[in-house]
Structures are given as structure tokens and as C-alpha cells.
């Protein structure tokens, strides 16, 4: 199982968040850079993967979007065998 560390402090706005996620998760160029596309790729693109999120409190800087982004990742992990989510503070 591959482990990918996602530093939420690097997600400073919507565009930067999706650019960072696309790079960190090796998403295809056609990734739509929105929450629906994120969910779709998390549930169908990755092989067995452990996502480790650090500095999650930094998503608060994105307001409601940050909360929805985190919820999207949590929901995808809950729905997808082989996708494990760990939230930890560094």
C-alpha cells in the first residue's frame, strides 16, 4: 500500500488546493479541479493508498470550502476499499 502525505497547510485557496492535490496524488491532466472530480478520482483512480493528512486545522483558512474538502476526502475513504485516511498533527 502506498502512503501519501498531504500537508493541508499547502492548500491556501481553492485553486492551490486542487493543484497541490493533483500533483501529490498524481492525478491525470484532465482532473477537473473541483470537489466532485476529487471524489471521483479518489474513489476510482488510486490503487490501495493510505492518505496521511497533517496540519488539517489549516483548512480553516478556506472557510466552508475547507470543511467540505475534508469531508469529501473522508467520504471517499469511507466508501472505497483500499483507501485509508489518517489525520494526524505534526
Q: How would you describe this structure to a colleague?
A:
This protein has 90 residues and is an alpha/beta fold. It has one domain (2-87): Barstar-like (Barnase, Chain D), CATH 3.30.370. Helices cover 41% and strands 19% of the residues. It is built from three helices and three strands; from the N terminus they run E-H-H-E-H-E. The chain has helices spanning 14-24, 35-44, 64-79, and strands spanning 2-7, 49-54, 83-87. It has a three-stranded parallel beta sheet with strand order 1-2-3, with helices on one face.
**CATH class term:** Alpha Beta
Gap from first CA to last CA: 22 Å
Structural class: alpha/beta
Mean pLDDT comes to 95
How many structural domains does the protein architecture include? 1
Mind describing the biggest β-sheet? 3 strands, parallel
Identify the CATH architecture: 2-Layer Sandwich
Specify the CATH homologous superfamily.
Barstar-like
Number of strands: 3
Gross morphology: globular
Give the number of helices: 3
Residue runs with pLDDT of under 50 for 5 or more positions: none
CATH topology: Barnase, Chain D
- H-E order: EHHEHE
Helix residue percentage: 40-55%
Numbering strands along the chain, what is their spatial order in the largest sheet? Answer: 1-2-3
The share of residues in extended strands comes to 15-25%
CA gyration radius, whole angstroms: 12 Å
Amino acid at each position: 500500500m502506498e502512503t501519501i502525505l498531504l500537508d493541508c497547510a499547502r492548500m491556501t485557496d481553492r485553486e492551490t488546493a486542487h493543484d497541490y492535490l493533483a500533483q501529490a496524488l498524481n492525478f491525470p491532466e484532465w482532473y477537473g479541479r473541483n470537489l466532485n472530480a476529487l471524489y471521483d478520482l479518489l474513489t476510482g483512480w488510486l490503487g490501495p493508498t493510505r492518505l496521511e493528512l497533517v496540519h488539517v486545522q489549516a483548512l480553516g483558512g478556506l472557510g466552508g470550502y475547507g470543511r467540505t474538502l475534508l469531508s469529501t476526502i473522508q467520504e471517499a475513504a469511507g466508501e472505497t476499499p483500499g483507501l485509508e485516511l489518517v489525520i494526524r498533527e505534526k
